[in-house]
Design brief:
Strand order of the largest sheet: 7-1-31-30-29
Strand content: 35-45%
Distance between the termini: 44 Å
Radius of gyration: 24 Å
Shape: globular
Number of helices: 5
């Protein structure tokens, strides 16, 4: 009689690949608020990857201003976040699978931003930032017409800037499209124009503006027309004709990690469907495309890009990543229909990290966390917004492909929630089925979703934009770090505002 076949030898579990970056702090949610916005007309849907929300300035009373766009108009919304920003402890409500549940609130004031209203077509993109003592708000419609509104900040100068709209300290710049083509997605990116770049352009008049507006560089992309127009101080510098329709664009910062060794000007990154093209706009009309990187497999288009700064480990620094142990590394992150966050290093033109399965459906919007650089926010077509680690510092995959969260590859929850779950599991194993053991399933329902999806919450309709801004340090003892606000706008008029903060150090793994 033959002996039974030997059982196949089990393979040892794969060890998680060591991350080339320092884990950094964890990301801890502190509050999630849903503001219901009521406009004269229903929100216009926009393109799939439109960006109709941008943060504005804050006041001493704790009121925050945020800009939203609908149809041909732009609105300024005042939010009362003073109580949330000054709260001592977290006020987060957790639902099933650890999904954050928002608290309903009403905005303080909604008013039209008249200089940016009545544009020729639907506004597709808003961009806001502080440049040279001015709060700059830029908008572009689906035809390609752009408007730039600069408001002088209090205490930034002795006198008011010139203004075309009659209000002191405000300046409006109109940049009309050279030709009217088919309406579609349009995007823009703004960055300050440094003195070195002004000298390179050969236009001394660009160094000063009679209006007091700081010299700015603006890039406007039109998907249907397959072109990108670059403006310097209001003048058209050059027009880039892309091989495929652009779907996203961003300026890389000046310096080595922005792709330019002379630190005078960074490159312009343009997403052309499934690839990223890096352009040196100093080349004028002589070309200037320095590299094309194929990112998405299978031709999946890219919908969003973000610049992120990480800290290299000693091992990674020895292999050429960064200038030494603990040095900062500038990276370009992209996401799109592939549902993954792919991180590129512009200096070596290669992919160095990937967060697979960030969301369940195509990711249309993305933003990099500033207080916890190892985390990335990604918004998908299924109304989900999730934050997880892109750098792989959490170890192996902790996701479940059958979960409603889509199986987040390297996303881990806040350290406090993960530690509480592990402690309950230990107590349940030691108790042998009583007391804590009976409460274990309920705890798993609350915490397992957090371990899969990091921080996540769901909207009520399609996302129209994602914006992030930093808050000053609280100054409290115990190493309280900076905080950040993340705003997500939905088609039904819901404005979700998440306040998050850095908490401890990363690197904890959930088993």
């Amino acid at each position: 009689m033959s002996s039974p076949p030997a059982a196949p030898e089990q393979r040892p579990p794969k060890r998680p690949k060591a991350s080339p970056f320092e884990p950094g702090p964890e990301l801890k949610p502190e509050s999630l608020t849903k503001f219901t916005l009521k406009l004269p007309h229903a929100f216009s849907p926009g393109a799939l990857n439109c960006s109709k929300v941008a943060w504005g300035s804050s006041t001493a009373s704790g009121t925050r201003t945020i800009y939203i766009a609908s149809a041909q108009h732009t609105y300024a919304v005042s939010l009362g976040l003073g109580s949330a920003e000054g709260s001592a402890g977290p006020s987060v409500v957790q639902g099933k699978e650890g999904v954050l549940v928002p608290v309903n609130a009403e905005p303080l004031l909604v008013r039209r931003e008249e200089p940016l209203c009545d544009m020729d077509a639907e506004v597709q993109c808003l961009s806001s930032g502080t440049h040279g003592g001015h709060q700059v708000l830029a908008a572009v419609d689906s035809v390609g017409n752009a408007r730039l509104l600069a408001t002088q900040l209090q205490g930034a100068g002795s006198g008011g800037a010139a203004d075309g709209e009659g209000a002191p300290g405000r300046y409006l710049m109109r940049l009309d499209a050279p030709s009217r083509g088919e309406c579609g997605w349009t995007g823009l990116a703004v960055r300050p124009l440094g003195p070195e770049a002004i000298e390179t352009s050969g236009d001394p008049s660009a160094a000063a503006s009679s209006s007091g507006l700081p010299p700015l560089e603006l890039a406007v992309a039109r998907q249907r027309m397959r072109d990108v127009r670059v403006y310097g101080s209001g003048e058209l510098v050059r027009t880039i004709h892309t091989l495929q329709g652009p779907t996203s664009l961003t300026f890389l910062p000046p310096g080595t990690y922005g792709g330019c060794g002379d630190a005078s000007a960074g490159l312009l990154a343009i997403a052309e469907e499934h690839q990223v093209a890096l352009w040196d706009i100093r080349q004028g009309e002589r070309g200037g495309c320095v590299q094309r990187l194929g990112v998405g497999s299978g031709g999946f288009p890219i919908y969003s890009m973000a610049w992120v700064t990480a800290v290299a480990t000693a091992t990674a620094a020895s292999s050429g990543l960064g200038t030494g142990a603990g040095s900062s590394v500038g990276l370009l992150a992209v996401t799109g229909a592939e549902r993954s966050v792919v991180v590129l290093e512009p200096r070596k033109w290669q992919v160095i990290a990937k967060w697979p399965g960030a969301v369940k459906y195509p990711a249309t919007h993305m933003a990099a966390s500033r207080v916890a650089p190892g985390f990335m926010y990604a918004a998908g077509l299924d109304y989900e917004l999730a934050a997880g680690r892109w750098d792989g510092s959490s170890g192996g995959s902790a996701g479940n492909s059958n979960s409603s969260s889509g199986g987040h590859g390297r996303a881990v929850g806040p350290a406090a929630f993960v530690a509480a779950r592990n402690e309950q599991r230990r107590m349940g194993a030691e108790g042998g089925g009583g007391g804590a053991g009976e409460a274990l399933p309920a705890a798993d329902d609350m915490l397992d979703g957090s371990s899969r999806a990091g921080l996540s919450f769901r909207g009520d309709s399609k996302w129209l934009g994602l914006a992030l801004t930093s808050l000053p340090a609280s100054g409290a003892a115990g190493g309280a770090g900076d905080k950040e606000l993340v705003a997500a706008l939905s088609l039904s008029g819901g404005l979700f505002v998440l306040q998050a903060a850095a908490s401890g150090k990363g690197g904890e793994t959930c088993n």
